[in-house]
Each structure stands twice: as structure tokens, then as C-alpha cells.
Amino acid sequence: MQQARATLDAFRERADARLEELFASWRRRALPGTARPAPGDLVEAVADLTRRGGKRLRPALAFHAACCFDHDLDEAALLDACLGVELLQTYLLIHDDVMDGDAERRGGPSVHVVLARLAGSDETGRSLAILAGDLACALSQELLLHPALPPERARAAAWELFRMQWEVIQGQLLDLVGGADPLDVHDAKTASYTTRGPVRLGAALAGAAQPQVAALERYGTPLGRAFQVRDDLLGTFGKQADLGKPVGSDLRAGKRTSLVRAALDRADAAQRAAILDVLGRPGATDAQIASACSAIEATGARQHEEALIESLTAEALAALDTADGLREVGRAFLRGVALLLADRDR
Predict the structure, then answer these.
(1) DSSP SS3 for 282
(2) Does 247 score more than 80 pLDDT?
(3) 41 and 109 in contact (C-beta within 8 Å)?
(4) Domain spans of the chain, in order of start
């Protein structure tokens, strides 16, 4: 696990340096504007959110999934293609914050808040943030057009990027309208572009055979579900300084996460009342949120979700360990990352 952490840290340094080069290039290509915000401001908003936080987990998973195979790819081209997943995440975060009305992301103002300040209008800020998200999505697609990538592999990777976007849009819809099983939402909304999609994209870039792609998918799907369950736990029991966003925002937004559902299934009348008192109430006070969190823990739901994370992680590791034809250098990183994700605190 420590080796995977060191490898991830080294990858992040390399990825961040390349992202700075890419954003400098995109700023130069932005049309000049006589008013603010100008097109360059959208590029800068995307750049700021992208560089502000994140472990570069998704492109690292894609890159090291490719390293599971003898891919013969130019490393610079491989890195750029994998960084497309990072820009895809930026796009999704920007739109997610607009939909949820969250004013903070990664320890700073959300993109719609930044752009509202520049425009002098909250409504215009939200509209510009939608454009900024669209821009990040377009940039993610451009990164698959590196001239050193074999066309057939770039095309296969583009299909994987499309698949991630297609699945996460459906997962977001299920999350917004409610009623779906939380694990189904996790599968579509989180596993799609956090774990399963990136490892499939890396395998596609490496020209892996379909059975090998399927094996990595069996690793990525339960791991993505475990990642989201951990996210739900951190959103309720974590620290705001670590998360970079307000604790309790999911409760205020009325999200019936697997944690909330497990708690409601186990709650007595008083515990249920404390939870429902804040669920879907944007104006709930911090004291009410704290009372709801205490009630959730008292039901035993937290322990239930921890056990679920352990089970899902074990499923992912079993799929990885039994997969044929993977180089150990890639397999070792994927194994270590799974353990890191299961035990993370932010």
C-alpha cells in the first residue's frame, strides 16, 4: 500500500506539470474578449478547479491499467490520453455543484461562484459554469487525439470516454429524482468514471484483449461502489478541512445515500425523527446536522457501511488477483490503490 501511495504521488507530480502546460496552451487559443468574463476566464476557471485538489486517481488508474500490458505506446501520448479522465471529472464537478447549489469545492469557491463574482450576477455565473463544464468535457475529448496514438486505440479509448459520460449522466439522473437503489446509483454515477471507466480506458489504449478488459471491469466495478460508500461516510463523519466542502451537504440536499437508507432501516422513532428533520432541508443548522449524524451512528449504519466497503474491496482484489495476462507492475499498483481507497480519510 505504501508503494502504491508513493507511485500515486509521483504520478500526480508528473500529471500536474503536464496539466499546467496544457492549460497554458488552451489559454493562448482562447478568443480575446472586451468584457469580463472573457473566454480565457472560462479556461482559467476550469484550470483553477482542476489544479486545486484531487489525487489524479482516475488518470493514474488509466495509466497503470495500460501498464498491465505490453502496450508499446509513447508515454507522453499515454499520459495525455489518461489526463482526459481528469478533465472529465472537472466537468462533472462543475455541473454537480450547479445542480446541488454547493458554493464550495475542494477548499475554495465553486466555479459558478467564481464566475458569478466576475459577472456580477448569480444567474449569469450559473450559466457560465455550465459553459465551463462543457469546455472541460471538450478538452477531455481533445486529449485522445494525440498524433502518437494509434488511431484504432484512440477510437477504442474514445468509446470508453463516451461510455463513462453516458453512464454518469444516467446515474446523476437517478440520484436527482430518487427512488433507485443507492448501489445502482453508485455503479452508474461513481464507478463509471472513477474506477471501472478509467481501467477500461487504459486497457483500450494498450490494445488489451476483451477478456482482459472484462477482468479489469470486474475489479473496477466493486471498487467504485466501495469508493462512493466511503465518500458517503466521509460526507457525514469526515472533517470539512479534509473534504474541501461542507460536512452534511448531502443530508441538506436530501440525498438518500446507502448510509442514510441503512440508518433509516435501523432507526427507532427518535433517531428517525432526527435524521428526517434535516434530510432535504437546505436551511438545517449545524447543530441539527450534528444531531442527525449522531443518530445515524447510533443506529449501527456506520458499522454496516464499513463492512460493505470491506466486502466490496475484497471482491475487487479477488477479481484482480485471478486475472490472467497482467504484468505485475500494473497489477501491484491497482492492488495497492484498492487498499488505499478503502482506508482513505478524504
Answers:
(1) coil
(2) no
(3) no
(4) 2-342
Could you identify the residue written with the cell 443548522? Answer: 285
Nearest-angstrom CA–CA distance, 346 and 341: 9
**Chain centre distance of CA 263:** 25
Look at residue 88 in the predicted model and tell me its pLDDT: 96
- Give the β-pairing of 108-109 and 104-105: antiparallel
Residue 216 and residue 225: Cα distance in Å, rounded? 15
Q: Give the pLDDT confidence of 72-96 residue by residue, as tens digits.
A: 889 999 999 999 999 999 999 999 9
Candidates 1.10.600.10, 3.40.630.10, 3.30.300.20, 1.20.58.90; CATH matching 2-342:
1.10.600.10
Q: Is the dihedral of CA 308, 309, 312, 314 positive or negative?
A: negative
Write out the three cell numbers for 321: 488477483
C-alpha closest to that of 329 among 63, 76, 81, 150: 63
Q: Among 207, 199, 77, which Cα is nearest to 155's? A: 207
Strand partners, 108: 105
Nearest alpha-carbon partner for 264 in 298, 236, 241, 240:
298
144: its cell numbers: 485522445
For residue 160, give the C-alpha cell.
470508453
What whole-number distance in Å separates Cα of residue 8 and Cα of residue 56?
A: 8
Distance in angstroms (rounded) separating the CA atoms of residues 219 and 211: 13
CA distance 87 to 139: 7
32: number of Cβ within 10 Å: 7
Q: What local confidence, expressed as pLDDT, does residue 282 receive? A: 87
Question: What are the Cα distances from residue 238, in Å, to 235, 243, 249, 274?
Answer: 6, 7, 12, 19
Q: Over the stretch 22-81, which tens digit does the pLDDT of each residue have?
A: 999 999 999 987 788 989 999 999 999 999 877 899 999 999 999 999 878 899 999 999
What lies within 8 Å, CB to CB, of 298 at 6+ separation is 271
- Of 141, 148, 10, residue with least CA distance to 72: 148
